[in-house]
Amino acid sequence: MAPTASRARSAFRRFLLPGAVATTAAVLAYSYRPRDIPGHSSPAVPPPTFGADGSFKLPRFPRVKSRDEQLVDLRKSSQPDSVEYDMLIIGGGATGAGVALDAATRGLRVAVVERDDFSSGTSSKSTKLVHGGVRYLEKAVWNLDYSQYELVKEALKERKYFLQTAPHLSSWLPIMLPLDKWWKAPYYWAGTKFYDFLAGSEGIESSYFLTRSKALEAFPMLKPTDLVGALVYYDGAHNDSRMNVSIAMTAALYGATVVNHAEVTDLIKNDQGKLCGAKVKDLVASKDGRSVDEITIRAKSIINCTGPFTDSIRKMDDRECRDIVAPASGVHVILPGYFSPGKMGLIDPSTSDGRVIFFLPWQGNTIAGTTDSPSTISANPLPDEKSIEWILSEVGHYLAPEINVRRGDVLAAWSGIRPLVKDPKAKNTESLVRNHLIDISPSGLLTCAGGKWTTYRQMAEECVDAAIQEYGLNPKSVTNAPRVSGTEMIDDGAILDGTCQTHKVRLIGAHGFSNTLFIPLIQHFGVETEVAKHLTESYGDRAWTVAALCKLTDKRFPARGERISQLYPFVDGEIRYAVRHEYAQTAVDVLARRTRLAFLNAQAALEALPKVIDIMAHELKWDSHRQDLEWKESVAFLESMGLPQPMLLATRKQVEQGKIDFASSLEWKMYSRHDKPE
Question: What is the pTM of this model?
Answer without folding.
Answer: 0.92
